[in-house]
């Protein structure tokens, strides 16, 4: 399409452009009512590229030459108040009456066809992608339930490619041009944010309603164990044995979520563990309520090493079989995933949190301690009594609960998340945590740290620091990774889920910025809309109240069987046909070579110490780390940088809270 430039039409002011097409390069978006803002670093959807002169966005000419004249296109306006943008594309994809995606305009006549190279089944237009790899605006192509392209949708009959030949992209994900055909559905991403579906690695499978709560919050993958509201399952994420594993697969077959089952690792029976792997578990859970001795840990890790599955550990709170050093010694440097590393959910009291600094430990939080507030401690006592079948009338049981609830370690958990030392967020659903709040609690923690300590400077380049960059892209990327890509890596499923990248399952969450982290606008499962904010079904349009998160066609009939997967070990001998289920079985990758260094943007390994009397937590700061890197002796480094305990701050007010749940 040739755009004729006229002096009175070629300039589109920023606010007008945003109204028409959504935010573009350089625009900032506030995440709901938090203090977090993200900035669009590039626009791949036909919008505006970054100006090399002063950071203002302009579009390069088709031949790659800079057509800017060096003058500001804002005419007679205060440059500080109005930042004009120049659009020489004119090909941004918008659907609707009088809009672009119509036959012989934005929509081509190219049929879908078979194979992988035809037009997509669905396109999400002009959406801001927030993922661990960056913050960009793009059109997103989905075909056969997978993401097939990120970049610019176009019609080759009327438009030119805009990304061909460019190699100077700052992100590891590169944009492409792709064709929209007559068989392509359109989802508008204008003004919205797209993230990968959440991956919850700590789910107690207690009741079916959990799945709806998870989907309504943006979680599309559930990993855990349980058989229902049995005492064993309300306390531990374990599905013990072949019979229970098979029936859990059957029970979850009609729900549009990916499922990974954890078997019981608290046993010295190698045969029992191997039988569970053959039945389809993707890992084992060792829990102190079943026994978490060093011998049990070693025996389970040996089976994990031979079967390539993961171990999830809830360690010995009472220090009955040894202290944290004994548990660490049992690891023998083998990698494993540790649940609720802070310790309130379980683990060696009071210093379980020190394992965050180990290179073979993949540490996770559960959401009830996130972030530390004025109500957190009081809530935990009652939760613990119920979940672990304690009697508040017994002194020993009260002491057990008190030893696990420590404000000082909860406060340190805030800091460790922000510095990237705790890699994963999870829920601990219905066993001290809330399945529908994993994503919300993640962003509440990020907000608290932003308001308390300001911007994460490690994510800024020299120019951004000099210009006092206000957006917090690095922190947003770090926190979104905690519930998307990192849990997927930990359990060997990151080649299928966990990020917005080509080739991956289209498990995607579309957010209105004002509801980000709280109420998704749409949840796509395997490319099909499974949950959405929808109004009264008897209304004349989809928007009349009550607007609620409701299951839609991707969550009904046989749809979950084709848009979701059950994860199993490569050593599993069971098949979907034998189980009589619709969901396909997907083999996980080897998890035995996954270490802390592989946790994206969350791989810090600080030295951590807990005072055994006061429970104060001392975290090695960057001063000591730098001196040690220069080969200064540890004692000298500590003398030059004396450690201070992590401060204990209680948040008294949080975003993403009551104002969103009045109705």
From TrEMBL:
Q: Name one GO biological process term.
A: urea catabolic process
Q: Which reaction does it catalyse?
A: urea + 2 H2O + H(+) = hydrogencarbonate + 2 NH4(+)
Task: Tell me where in or outside the cell this protein is found.
Answer: Cytoplasm
Cofactor note as given? Binds 2 nickel ions per subunit.
Regions of compositional bias (Basic and acidic residues) in chain numbering:
63-74
Q: Which GO terms describe its cellular component?
A: cytoplasm
Q: Does the keyword Hydrolase apply?
A: yes
Region of interest (Disordered), residue spans: 45-92
Query: How does the record describe the protein's post-translational processing?
Result: Carbamylation allows a single lysine to coordinate two nickel ions.
| Names of required cofactors | Ni cation
Annotated binding of Ni(2+) 2, by residue: 285, 314, 340
EC numbers listed for it are: 3.5.1.5
Residues binding substrate, per UniProt:
287
Molecular function (GO) terms for this protein are: nickel cation binding; urease activity
User: Which residues does the entry assign to the active site, renumbered to this chain?
Assistant: 388 (proton donor)
SUPFAM superfamilies, per database record: Composite domain of metallo-dependent hydrolases (SSF51338), Metallo-dependent hydrolases (SSF51556)
Give the pathway annotation: Nitrogen metabolism; urea degradation; CO(2) and NH(3) from urea (urease route): step 1/1
Gene3D superfamilies, per the entry: Metal-dependent hydrolases, Urease, subunit C, domain 1
Q: N6-carboxylysine modification sites?
A: 285
The entry describes its oligomerization and partners as: May form a heterohexamer of 3 UreC (alpha) and 3 UreAB (gamma/beta) subunits. May also form a heterotrimer of UreA (gamma), UreB (beta) and UreC (alpha) subunits. Three heterotrimers associate to form the active enzyme.
Question: What protein family does this chain belong to?
Answer: Belongs to the metallo-dependent hydrolases superfamily. Urease alpha subunit family.
Q: Which protein are we looking at?
A: Urease subunit alpha
> Which organism's genome codes for this protein?
Streptomyces acidicola
What gene name does this entry carry? ureC
């Amino acid at each position: 399409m040739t755009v004729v430039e006229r002096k009175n039409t070629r300039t589109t002011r920023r606010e007008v452009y945003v109204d028409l097409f959504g935010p573009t390069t350089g625009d900032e978006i506030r995440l709901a009512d938090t203090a977090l803002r993200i900035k669009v670093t590039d626009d791949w959807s036909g919008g505006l590229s970054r100006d090399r002169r002063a950071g203002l966005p302009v579009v390069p000419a088709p031949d790659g030459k800079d057509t800017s004249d060096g003058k500001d296109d804002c005419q007679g306006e205060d440059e500080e108040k109005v930042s004009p943008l120049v659009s020489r594309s004119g090909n941004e994809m918008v659907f609707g009456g009088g809009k672009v995606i119509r036959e012989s305009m934005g929509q081509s006549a190219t049929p879908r066809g078979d194979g992988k190279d035809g037009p997509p089944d669905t396109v999400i237009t002009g959406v801001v992608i927030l993922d661990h790899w960056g913050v960009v605006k793009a059109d997103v192509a989905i075909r056969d339930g997978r993401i097939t392209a990120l970049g610019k949708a176009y019609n080759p009959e009327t438009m030119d490619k805009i990304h061909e030949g460019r190699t100077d992209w700052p992100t590891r994900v590169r944009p492409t041009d792709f064709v929209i055909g007559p068989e392509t559905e359109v989802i508008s991403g204008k003004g919205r944010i797209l993230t990968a579906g959440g991956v919850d690695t700590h789910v107690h499978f207690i009741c079916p309603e959990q799945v709806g709560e998870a989907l309504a919050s943006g979680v599309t993958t559930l990993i855990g164990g349980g058989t229902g509201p049995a005492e064993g399952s309300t306390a531990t994420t374990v599905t013990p044995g072949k019979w229970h594993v098979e029936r859990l697969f059957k029970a979850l077959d009609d729900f549009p979520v990916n499922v990974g089952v954890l078997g019981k690792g608290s046993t010295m029976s190698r045969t029992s563990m191997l039988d569970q792997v053959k039945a389809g578990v993707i890992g084992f859970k060792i829990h102190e309520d079943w026994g978490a001795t060093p011998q049990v840990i070693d025996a389970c890790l040996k089976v994990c090493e031979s079967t390539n599955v993961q171990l999830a550990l809830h360690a010995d709170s009472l220090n009955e079989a040894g202290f944290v050093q004994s548990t660490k010694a049992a690891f023998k440097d083998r990698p494993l995933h540790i649940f609720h590393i802070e310790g309130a959910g379980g683990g060696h009291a009071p210093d379980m949190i020190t394992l965050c600094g180990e290179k073979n430990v993949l540490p996770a939080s559960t959401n009830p301690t996130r972030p530390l507030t004025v109500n957190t401690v009081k809530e935990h006592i009652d939760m613990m009594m119920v979940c672990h079948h304690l009697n508040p009338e017994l002194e020993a049981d009260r002491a057990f609960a008190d030893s696990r609830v420590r404000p000082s370690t909860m406060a340190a958990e805030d800091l460790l998340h922000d510095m990237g030392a705790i890699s994963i967020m999870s829920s601990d659903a219905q066993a001290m945590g809330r399945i529908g709040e994993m994503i919300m609690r993640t962003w509440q923690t990020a907000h608290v740290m932003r308001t308390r300590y300001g911007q994460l400077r490690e994510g800024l380049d020299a120019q951004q620091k000099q210009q006092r960059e206000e957006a917090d892209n690095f922190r947003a990327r770090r926190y979104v990774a905690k519930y998307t890509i990192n849990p997927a890596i930990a359990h060997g499923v990151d080649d299928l889920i966990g990020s917005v990248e080509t080739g991956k399952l289209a498990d995607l969450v579309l957010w209105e910025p004002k509801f980000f982290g709280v109420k998704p606008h749409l949840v796509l499962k395997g490319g099909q809309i499974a949950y959405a904010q929808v109004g009264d079904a008897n209304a004349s349009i989809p928007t009349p109240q009550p607007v609620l998160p409701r299951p839609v066609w991707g969550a009904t009939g046989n749809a979950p069987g084709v848009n979701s997967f059950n994860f199993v070990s490569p050593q599993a001998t069971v098949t979907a046909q034998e189980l009589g289920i619709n969901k396909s079985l997907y083999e996980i990758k080897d998890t035995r070579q996954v270490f802390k260094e592989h946790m994206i943007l969350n791989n810090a390994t600080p030295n951590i110490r807990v005072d055994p009397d006061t429970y104060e937590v001392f975290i090695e700061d960057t001063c000591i780390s730098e001196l040690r890197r220069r080969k200064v002796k540890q004692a000298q480094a500590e003398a030059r940088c004396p450690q201070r305990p992590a401060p204990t701050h209680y948040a008294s007010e949080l975003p993403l809270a009551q104002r969103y749940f009045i109705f």
